[in-house]
Amino acid sequence: MSKETKGTSRRQFLTSAAALGAGAVAATGARAAGPDPLITEVQDWASGFGHGVDEVPYGLPIKFEDDVIRRNVEWLTADTISSINFTPIHALDGTITPQGCAFERHHSGAIELSKPDYRLMINGLVDQPLIFTYDDLERFPREQHVYFCECAANTGMEWAGAQLNGAQFTHGMIHNMEYTGVPLRTLLAEAGLDAAGDFRDKWVYVEGADASSNGRSIPMEKAMDDVLVAFKANGEALRKEHGYPVRLVVPGWEGNMWVKWLRRVEVMDGPVESREETSKYTDTLADGTSRKWTWVMDAKSVITSPSPQAPITHGHGPLVITGMAWSGHGKITRVDVSKDGGMTWETARLAAEGQDKALTRFYLDTTWNGEEMLLQSRAIDETGYVQPTKAQLRDVRGLNSIYHNNCIQTWHVKANGEAENVEVS
Ligand SMILES: Nc1nc2c(c(=O)[nH]1)N[C@H]1C(S)=C(S)[C@@H](COP(=O)(O)O)O[C@H]1N2
Ligand SMILES: [Mo]
User: Measuring from atom 6 of ligand 1, which residue has the nearest CA?
Assistant: First the structure.
């Protein structure tokens, strides 16, 4: 369809919708044209005062949005303490995840740790072991970056077939925030790295102050690159559930390494091989061997609307298809959308140029006349990597894996606008 005809049909749609009353759509509207009380009558909200500035010192979303919340899948974990919930990505737009609905993953629950009680120790192969208070951290030069954090288990329930009916549940173990913090390399330099000698075979072991400690080994090269010791997210203090007052940000790498309530960084001459990097967060292949050190989150995308929790409710005509794409290897350069289960593809419009290791929002502004669709999106990153189909991923990983499922997702959109998670491999 040319730009010209597309523009015309959109204009016609807007005219007829207005004639029928707000919300009605030409193709479905059997309503008689008549006066719309929302236009012709004086409304309550225009007949008195709204609330004053002192009423809500710290605001929450308006009550009409009260279903835009994190959700848990009860059968996934035995309790809600060592558990996970999911970001309502089907209801969000743009790229920044509000902290209040950003997914949580805890191994021993979210702890309450105050700034005065906070300590960060740097020890091991350093010239001078150091302990930083929260105030100390605020005196080092800061940086700001937007990064996504994706749990390696995101989409893990979908390996064998379509299972969870909603983008929130299939892809909601992700958030994307603007972090403020001190580069880890700045703090390591403060402790002095002469004692460490050649960096190439050195590691840092990072751990949290919660009971699980969630310890992970990180190669020194990454630690000296873009890892941040962060204390602000989206401009304000981290929320308790995201590691207040200080968390590690490990751009592009699996969420498990983003240690919350960060208490210790030890410089070591090898990895620890902790629980979280051996029995967990490794990928068992078809032959029973396991991949480990699978740190980077490969390029991935998902259509957030329409999707099972965000069906098409507006009838025929203009339809905005939207979703998000990301890559732990760098920037997203292109996203393609298919309406026919991957047989043909259209290039989506990126809302903004891809950013390094951060979410990119995409749109496909299209027309829908009730035809069934098998909606898919496929991300391409700056390395040229193309998000794989489910069959391609299974060919190399088998069916035993949980983590690092970045395959193409399919939503079956029906004639009535409802959408369902289906498998097209
Ligand atoms: N200290 C500590 N850090 C932790 C965890 C934890 O349980 N304790 N969970 C990890 C896992 S598995 C993930 S996916 C991310 C989730 O970060 P979020 O809760 O801010 O979404 O934190 C990681 N950091
Ligand atoms: Mo995770």
Answer: 106
Instruction: Kindly give the distance from the C-alpha atom of residue 171 to the centroid of ligand 1, in angstroms, as a whole number.
Output: 16
| Whole-angstrom distance, CA of residue 146 vs CA of residue 315 | 36
263 CB within 6 A, ligand 1: no
Q: Contact 196/267 with Cβ under 8 angstroms?
A: yes
Q: How far apart are CA 328 and CA 222, in angstroms?
A: 13
Find out whether the beta carbon of 176 lies less than 6 Å from any atom of ligand 1: no
The number of beta carbons lying within 10 Å of the beta carbon of residue 306 is 25
* Residue range 138-191, pLDDT digits in tens: 999 999 999 999 999 999 999 999 999 999 999 999 999 999 999 999 999 999
Q: N- to C-terminal Cα distance for the chain? A: 29
Is the Cβ atom of 212 under 6 angstroms away from ligand 1?
Answer: yes
| Rounded CA separation 395/393 (Å) | 5
Distance between Cα 80 and ligand 1 center (Å): 14
Specify the pLDDT at position 33: 80
User: Ligand 1: does its nearest atom lie under 6 Å from the Cβ of 242?
Assistant: yes
- Does this model's pTM top 0.85? My answer is yes
What residues flank ion ligand 2 with Cβ within 5 A? 105, 151, 255-256
Q: Which segments within 253-293 are labelled E, that is strand?
A: 262-268, 283-284, 290-291
CA of 190 to the centre of ligand 2 (A): 30
C-alpha span between 215 and 281 (Å, rounded): 12
- Number of Cβ within a 10 Å radius of residue 157: 17
Helix and strand tally (H, E) in the chain? 7, 23
Please say if the pLDDT value at position 1 is more than 60: no
- Is 254's C-beta closer than 6 angstroms to any atom of ligand 1? no
The CA distance from 259 to 243, in Å, is 8
Domains of the chain, earliest start first: 71-291 (3.90.420.10), 300-422 (2.60.40.650)
3-state secondary structure of 372: coil
> Is residue 181 in contact with ligand 1, taking CB distance under 6 Å?
no
2 has a pLDDT exceeding 50: no
151 lines ligand 1 (CB under 6 A): yes
> Does residue 412 sit in helix, strand or coil?
strand
